[in-house]
Amino acid sequence: MTRLVQQESQKDESRYPILYIIMRTDLSSMNAGKGMAQACHGANQMVDLIKETFDTPSAVSQLLTLWEGDRGFGTTVILDGGKMHEIEEIINTIDMTKGDDNVVTGIVHDPSYPIRDGSATHLIPLDTCAFVFKDKNSNCDHLALDNLRLHR
After folding, report:
1. pLDDT higher than threshold 80 for residue 141
2. 49-105 pLDDT tens trace
3. Cα 52 to Cα 73: distance, rounded to the nearest angstrom
4. pTM score, two decimals?
């Protein structure tokens, strides 16, 4: 336990990466289990996007390394986003205000989201959530995220 406290105190406090997952709340089929699965899809998509898109010495890849730490994951906050068009507006606002900040956004598209209809389960393509990965000190539009409630 002392070792962990020492490691925490040695972190660079000027950079604190956070992954925000913005969940749809307008789907009655999105129960707790499906919601957790979709949030995991968002986290995995964010990591994959950064590793595939950004060079290893880039500021974004360094932010990801800091986020992953020695555990393989970092601070993640799940927020209620409302309907998909509202989530898209939030992502667009952040994209327009991020400038050169190291902010990565994305929409999670599940090509096989399960919908149960009686005894049949249909797999449909559906946008389920979005993600914003950023340093808490970045200059992008914080109000777009600050006005959202924690997901329940």
Report:
1. no
2. 999 998 878 889 999 999 999 999 999 999 999 999 999 999 999 998 887 678 999
3. 18
4. 0.87
- 3-state SS assignment for residue 39: helix
The CA distance from 145 to 138, in Å, is 12
Would you kindly state where each structural domain of the chain is located, as residue ranges? 17-146
Max distance between CA atoms of the chain, in angstroms, equals 55
Of the chain, the end-to-end C-alpha distance in Å amounts to 31
Residues 17-146: name the CATH superfamily. Answer: Bit1 (3.40.1490.10)
Listed in sequence order, the residues at least 6 apart from 81 whose beta carbon sits closer than 8 Å to its beta carbon are 22, 23, 24, 25, 87, 90, 129, 130, 148
